[in-house]
Specification:
Layout (H helix, E strand, L loop, with lengths): L6 E8 L9 H15 L10 E5 L7 H6 L10 E4 L5 H14 L5 E8 L18 H4 L4 H16 L3 H14 L14 H6 L2 E3 L2 E2 L9 E9 H7 L5 E10 L13 H14 L8 E3 L5 H10 L8 H6 L10 E2 L4 H5 L6 H13 L14 E8 L9 E9 L2
Parallel strand pairs: 2-3, 2-4, 9-10, 9-11
Antiparallel strand pairs: 1-7, 1-8, 4-7, 5-6, 8-12, 11-12
């Protein structure tokens, strides 16, 4: 989507991720209220549209979230479901409203509560009528196959995969929003319970509850609201996974490759210029594959990129400076908005204890959504953000 006028992220909000006794609407409302207050928005009618991303919590989620903020009756509230891409898609739609002049202020929220609505230990699967679901394919099993193939082709080891968990837990050590944090050894990661070989428990993201929110504004609204450090949206892309009923390279990810290529073209920013990246690290192998799919390094060089420290502080691009899904957990519909909130804070130098130095100027986010036979993913949403001062 070519942006027709400048668009900015104003205030952001997020909750801590983990297991919550508060339902999705309470979490979403807390994140939204934080974002609105940070944007100097004092009345519900100052917001001209609202998008709510949620994956599993039922009908009219947006109205349920925003009614106690006085927005029902004042704001058109639209609900989005695209599995793990739901929150990122909410931001995309808010940007679309602003760039095409349909609104000057739009609110995007992603929220989810699994704890109160799913049986513990339940695995997320593709669409219930999908042939892969019928035959018992769940996401962990599919990514385990990708890991096995990648290890076969590149010589990567279980210890290499475990390094990603170690890195991301270390990144999250001082992040108050992360669920899992602190030092963990490669040996501890490898020795944890096998879920789907070679992936062990500590190489899989925790299914979490949480919320994130962002206020998207035009340049005129930014000036009117008195925001001194808005973060500009340089690009936003949503794609659906291409279908093909033929053998394919499962160490690649066609939808991520296509989405990132479009984002680079439309934003005018290449992978070599990205300072920080929050990606869909639902499993350790995911991050390793995405280095290559997004062009941070050449095909086949992801392992070298990791081993050389290029994905951590001081490297070419700090991947998952907040700790990623492997540390935050994965609150499904909220993950995309939580990524946006985290990146905006990094660009504004607001992350004491885990701030990337020098302060980054360019951030990129990436979430995929859902599984479907014949595709790598049902959807992919990516954003490019730059500091606008």
């Amino acid at each position: 989507m070519k942006l027709q006028r400048k668009v900015y992220i104003d205030g952001v909000g997020e909750t801590k991720c983990g297991g919550h006794t508060a339902d999705f609407d309470v979490l979403g409302r807390a994140a939204a209220l934080e974002a609105l207050r940070a944007s100097n928005i004092t009345r519900p009618d100052m917001v001209q549209s609202a998008y709510i991303g949620n994956g599993t919590n039922g009908l009219v989620t947006g109205q349920t979230v925003l009614k106690d903020l006085g927005m029902c009756g004042h704001v058109p509230i639209m609900n989005l479901e695209s599995a793990c891409s739901s929150g990122g898609m909410a931001v995309h739609m808010a940007v679309r409203d602003v760039t095409f002049g349909l609104a000057d202020v739009s609110l995007a929220v992603g929220c989810e509560n699994h704890t109160l609505h799913m049986v513990p230990g339940t695995a997320l699967s593709p669409a219930m009528s999908d042939i892969e679901t019928v035959h018992g394919a769940v996401m962990t099993g599919k990514y385990a196959m990708r890991a096995q193939r990648y290890m076969y082709e590149t010589g990567a080891t279980a210890q290499d995969l475990a390094m990603i968990t170690v890195k991301n837990r270390r990144h999250a050590t001082n992040n108050p929003y992360a669920w899992f944090k602190g030092e963990i050894s490669v040996e501890e990661v490898v020795a944890s319970r096998v879920v789907a070989s070679p992936l062990t428990l500590q190489q899989c993201c925790g299914i979490a509850d949480g919320a994130g929110a962002g206020v998207v504004c035009s340049e005129a609204a930014i000036k009117k609201l008195g925001i001194s450090k808005p973060v500009e949206v340089a690009g936003t892309v949503v794609r659906s996974g291409p279908y093909h009923n033929r053998p394919r390279d499962i160490t690649g990810d066609d939808i991520t490759e296509m989405t990132s290529a479009q984002l680079y073209e439309e934003s005018g920013i290449g992978p070599q210029n990205v300072d920080i990246l929050e990606l869909h690290d639902a499993f350790t192998i995911s991050e390793l594959l995405y280095y290559e799919c997004m062009g941070l390094c050449r095909k086949g060089d992801g392992l070298k990129f990791l081993r050389d420290g290029q994905a951590t502080y001081g490297g070419q691009c700090v991947v998952s400076p907040r700790g990623g899904m492997l540390s935050y957990g994965h609150p499904m519909g909220a993950s995309g908005t939580a990524q946006i909130a985290a990146c905006v804070k990094q660009l504004r130098n607001q992350c004491p204890g885990y701030q990337v130095e020098p302060v980054p100027r360019v951030a990129m986010t990436h979430v995929t959504g859902g599984g479907l036979s014949g595709t790598e993913h049902a959807a992919c949403t990516m954003h490019m953000l730059v500091s606008g001062w």
